[in-house]
What does this fold into?
Amino acid sequence: MSNAGISIVRMSGMDAISIADRLYRSPKGNKRLADQLSHTIHYGYIYDGEEMIDEVMVLIMKGPSSYTREDVIEIDCHGGIVVTKKILELLIKNGARPAEPGEFTKRAFLNGRIDLSQAEAVIDIINAKSDMALKSSVSQLKGSVLEKVRNIRKNIIHDIAFIEAALDDPEHIEIDGFGEELLERVENNQKEISRLLSTADNGRIMKEGIKTVIVGKPNAGKSSLLNVLLGEERAIVTEIEGTTRDTLEESIYLGDIILNLVDTAGIRVTEDYVEGLGVEKARASAKDADLIIYVVDGTRQLDENDREIISLIKAKKAIVLLNKIDLESVISKEDLEKEVNQPVLLISAKEELGLSRLEEKIKEMFFQGELKFNDEIYITNMRHKSALMETSESLSKVKESIEASMPEDFYSIDLMNAYESLGTIIGESVGEDLINTIFSEFCMGK
Ligand code: GDP
It folds into this structure.
């Protein structure tokens, strides 16, 4: 907590308005908050007995038209720590209790105003690290994920109901040939889910950033590049080969994308144990990196270190930077392009040349230039991703049962599992433990 212009102290629950009335006085002293209309704002003072504490504005939002669907009172007071605490203490003394982290949003969820995916979007909005992350979270808050999940669930429950009905009443409901129809619908649902899952990588990248590793042999200019990108002398640049031994991790913003950079000791064919660790690290991080930036020293011929890196980046998303173009180059862009089979950009880390193309190139590679939020849903939440994967597995089992001409009640079991896995995304059929874990990640007062 620190001093600010304005603080908001808020209360939710059936006693919220009556508790506020015990402390609030209008300028003329004749107004009761309980008598006021919902969604109105009232000027006045907070009193502790006969002592005036602060001049405030009080907002009244009566349930169910409020964030929590309960009566909500917000007191806008002056933003000093002492005065805010004092008002909070007074409310508690008069019957309120401090909220748990995320309790307002939890109540909104428990009272059915939002589903779990929307509640998670709230925390993502608060934690958004970039404009892109914010946009996708807002779309999730508006219910884009909820709506999609609901539709697929509706299809599934329809089929479950049909099977149950047919099995109960075989004389009137014909189930022959149903398997084929169902197969088509299951496949369609699975396609929808695959499409959602295919957005999860970009979704994660949007939310957390692109895990990027810079590789290149010693002295190629990796640290210099990192420093330019960071805009500060944070990595130690040296003239001696192979001294960048520590692994550095930094997040940098290129426009509205985030690169989570892991600098490495460079890839080097070596017997030296300590250097070897660096090489191992580079290999390991290159393996699970989203993007590899390979820095080539244009003033030296490619050697066995470069060959090793080139083989490492073959099947990855990589950008090759031909560095030191301010000096005479012994490698041409065309030759290098042939060699690496990846896009090559000319740069000078020292003179800071050619770097704006890097940002454009990354956007092209990851987001096809520009991200569209209008109709596209991105799965940014890993919990949602694993639930979708479980759903897809259950649907695969339904398909197998149909193809093996198993009895119909086998289909319903796996359809039901699919239905429940999807339900966990929006918060239906989830246990209290999971709910508590999710809301404990929230900050106080949200
Ligand atoms: P690293 O070992 O790959 O991290 O390489 P460094 O970033 O430490 O750079 C090694 C040397 O190359 C340093 O002396 C840098 O100043 C120099 N260097 C890096 N980039 C450039 C460049 O674009 N032009 C020139 N002339 N020198 C550079």
About this structure: Residues 69 and 191 are 37 Å apart (CA to CA). The domain at 121-204+378-441 is CATH 1.20.120.430 (Four Helix Bundle (Hemerythrin (Met), subunit A)).
